[in-house]
């Protein structure tokens, strides 16, 4: 049985897939980032559901008890083990030039009675055609966003003093994360937490908790595009510091689906920030954000 959960950010698709995994006798979660593998590992163990962790950097196996679940990065998933339920997160990565092989391998190779796949609507035709090629039926469950998202008509006009409590400022290099943190703290007097992909998971978890806790004194988050995938953060407003990134060859615009995914992190259902806002520091970048948010989705190839 293959179930594809699709919808925008903050629509409950991953929540529902993980519910199926939580109640399984055995199972595995496959995520795109070690941050996400850690988050699922912590979530289950905090609920009293024993879960192991396997990423490229570390392996945590709970001693002395039968552990039915494993949370892993997708490249590290064990395809030899038979399980009842598997969850594959961020299936739109299937078309990624560098890492798409890992999602293809998981979809075709996992030995699970039930596979729950989560991702963007753009992945539906491709996943359906893969399933048809191996005579597998697939059920598509569509989700709508649970909270409101508003794109601001104005940028911050380059003025960091306009950064306010509950903002997440997104930038695309680790160097600029730390320089921005210092600049914002100097301009506003607000303290900044940080989050990026290569941050050690314990540190990242601690920084996320500081930002989420209204009494911690950390009111702003400065983050990389890693926040686009998962991470439960109570963000009121996403502020793009830039919409361009060095991709190993040159400086290019962030792809439209990624802009949508990052923007979608603003506003979180079930928190005081149910209405999310999106803006940019500069006018030119906000124009690109508006174009990206209005663009129809393109099916993956």
Automatic annotation (TrEMBL):
Superkingdom is: Eukaryota
Return the protein name.
14658_t:CDS:1
